[in-house]
Design brief:
Helices cover 64% and strands 1% of the residues. The protein is mainly α. It has a single domain, classed as Cytochrome c oxidase-like, subunit I domain (Cytochrome C Oxidase, Chain A), CATH 1.20.210. A two-stranded antiparallel ribbon has the order 1-2. α3 packs parallel to α5, α6 runs parallel beside α8 and α13 packs antiparallel against α14.
Length: 628
């Protein structure tokens, strides 16, 4: 009996484009999604940097008149939100997307279309936040959004600035939660045969810790943001003292998310540095187990220190003392990592390539930020400095000097793998030194300004307070950072077009991603590797002599597998099919957000229908593409 074939509906037909814009719009390839995450985060980095330059230009001299107080509030709020939620977090996600499957010997992530959804939700969440500039102004209550100011309907009718903050962060939270579930599943279930947990690269361990933190931290702030939205939109009283609410509840919920968030931001850079240092020291990471378990300890202990952000709130001596002690304790696993990194370099055959310079810069700047942070475990010290520029200095040394400088090291390190070209070393070193000097010129003076009593969040100040020289020095440093970023952008574009061909393993590296062609094929590995050692690729290339020095293995090496052999072996591999349904599902979320702001039920129904239509098509769509 002949089988009757039902034609596939037009909206379920697979996208066929293999190149061009449409191929990027519909891609579910983890590498392309990682690239899109990276470029989008960098665009937001430029926007956040421009906001910072306007802030510094305003504060360069006393009684500045460049911008108004209202615009200043919008700028420092959007700068903080941008750098945390739209730059450092998604830049970490860019590395997770691109390199987790490559480093564990997998062909893709566990849920490729869910991966695509996370990117599009992130993009539309960021655009939704920035669209506030066209609807009466950007959020202006600080990135922390303290109640009751942020939870009221505002002092002006139709003031929706904080609504964009609350709804935008909720949309971005969806992207983080689905991505974290995807990465956790990928790491725990898709490792190459033989890659036990204690044989995973440190970057993979830090990725695992970060994504567990995301999975549990994002619902906490989601609850707080829902409360805020209900207070503002529907007249609820969660944070209103007059109605029995408590504004301190917002701070508890926000910082219960906010301090694990600090480690969400910094641990990816710690993982990157832990991969770079052994390669350019030509020796294994010292104390691998200690580095791994200290990262896990940081993730666990990070849940017990949130109230050190609240020492000036009035929680009482018992609570303040408990959180002071926990803050001191969490410095221990961080210190363990620093000593292990230093021990890795000690006695090594060091090569001061650009990735290595950024890694060393990361360690130095993070030590400064960490030491200033530990001083705030002392409650009287914290009470004195809480609302001054000393705090601003501390968190910039951690999040810029630490996270962003570490991420730049990762970009230089893995650029050859992504594009098959080498970045220009001379320009890379110019970028590093300009950024390092500019960074310290910008944020080093903040310590002195804070000790001299300059308050944070003020848009101007009087002359004669001893702050003028330090503010001018800081502003000059900020523009030097901007100039260094232009050098990086020039280097990136130039190297991508005309850079020296990299080969598969230009750094003589240690992990699995360097065993395959650069850039990698869509399927990553023609044959899934079998892992027998930690740093398995290194052990394929070298053995140790009697004095512990690496000696090349006669057979094998970094160019062992040719690209032609990989391509020929890749035939017959099924990969997930492209899909535009994650994009459709993501579009509905900001539409629903606008419906809440505009109090439009019809628009809310439209947004809900769009999202449900995307998921409906997603469920019915064929899962696997044709053979390669």
């Amino acid at each position: 009996m002949a089988m009757v074939t039902t034609p596939t509906p037009w909206f379920l037909r697979r996208p066929k484009a293999s190149h061009g814009i449409w191929s990027w719009v519909t891609t579910v390839d983890h590498k392309r999604i990682g690239i899109m995450y990276g470029y989008t985060a960098f665009v937001f980095f430029i926007l956040g940097g421009l906001e910072a330059l306007l802030i510094r230009a305003q504060l360069a001299t006393p009684e500045g008149k460049l911008i108004s107080a209202d615009l200043y509030n919008q700028l420092f709020t959007t700068h903080g939100v941008t750098m945390i939620f739209l730059v450092v977090m998604p830049m970490g996600a860019a590395f997770f997307n691109y390199f987790i499957p490559l480093m564990i010997g997998a062909r893709d992530v566990a849920f490729p279309r869910l991966n695509s959804l996370s990117y599009w939700v992130f993009l539309f969440g960021g655009l939704f936040l920035y669209s506030s500039w066209f609807f009466g102004g950007a959020p202006d209550g600080g990135w922390f959004g303290y109640a009751p100011l942020s939870s009221s309907a505002g002092f002006l009718p139709g003031d929706h600035r904080i609504d964009f903050y609350a709804l935008g962060l909720q949309i971005l939270g969806v992207a983080s939660i689905v991505a974290s579930a995807n990465f956790i599943t990928t790491i725990l279930n898709m490792r190459a045969p033989g890659m036990k947990l204690m044989k995973m690269p440190v970057f993979i361990w830090m990725s695992l810790v970060v994504n567990f933190l995301l999975l549990f931290a994002m619902p906490v702030i989601a609850v707080a943001l829902f409360f805020m939205t209900f207070d503002r939109t529907f007249g609820a009283l969660f944070f209103a003292p007059a109605g029995g609410g408590d504004p301190i509840l917002w701070q508890h919920l926000f910082w219960l998310f906010g301090h694990p968030e600090v480690y969400i931001l910094i641990l990816p850079a710690m993982g990157i540095v832990s991969e770079i240092l052994p390669v350019f020291s030509r020796k294994p990471l010292f104390g691998y187990s200690f580095v791994v378990f200290s990262g896990a300890a940081i993730g666990f202990m990070g849940w017990g220190v949130w109230a050190h952000h609240m020492f000036t709130v009035g929680l009482g001596p018992a609570a303040n003392s408990a959180f002071a002690v926990s803050t001191m304790f969490i410095a221990v696993p961080t210190g363990v990592k620093i000593f292990n990194w230093m021990a890795t370099m000690a006695g090594g055959s060091l090569k001061f390539k650009t990735p290595m310079l950024f890694s060393i810069g990361f360690i130095a700047m993070f030590i400064i930020g960490g030491l200033s942070g530990v001083t705030h475990s002392i409650v009287p010290h914290d009470a004195q400095q809480q609302d001054t520029y000393y705090i601003v200095a501390h968190f910039h040394y951690v999040l810029f000097g630490g996270a962003i400088i570490g991420l730049f090291g990762g970009l230089y390190f893995w650029f050859p793998k992504i594009y098959g070209k080498m970045m220009d070393e001379r320009l890379g070193k110019i970028h590093f030194w300009m950024m390092l000097i500019g960074f310290n010129m910008t944020f080093g003076p903040f310590h002195i300004l804070g000790l001299k009593g300059m308050p944070r969040r003020y848009y101007t100040y009087q002359a004669g307070l001893g702050w003028e020289m330090w503010n001018m020095l800081s502003t000059v440093g900020a523009f030097l950072i901007a100039a260094s970023t232009l050098v990086f952008m020039h280097n990136w574009v130039k190297s991508k077009r005309k850079g020296e061909i990299a080969g598969n393993d230009p750094w003589d590296a240690r992990t699995l991603e360097w065993t395959i062609p650069s850039p990698p094929p869509e399927y990553n590995f023609a044959v899934i590797p079998t892992v027998t050692e930690r740093d398995d690729f290194w052990h394929r290339k070298y053995k140790e002599d009697k004095k512990g020095r690496p000696v090349p293995v006669p057979v094998g090496g970094s160019e062992e597998h040719s690209e032609d052999a990989e391509h020929d072996a890749g035939h017959g591999i099924h990969m997930p099919s492209p899909s535009y349904f994650p994009l459709v599902a993501a579009i509905g979320m900001p539409v629903a957000g606008f419906a809440v702001i505009l109090h439009s039920w019809p628009l809310g129904i439209v947004g809900t229908v769009i999202t449900l239509a995307g998921f409906y098509g997603w469920v019915l769509e064929p899962a696997t593409a044709e053979e390669h």
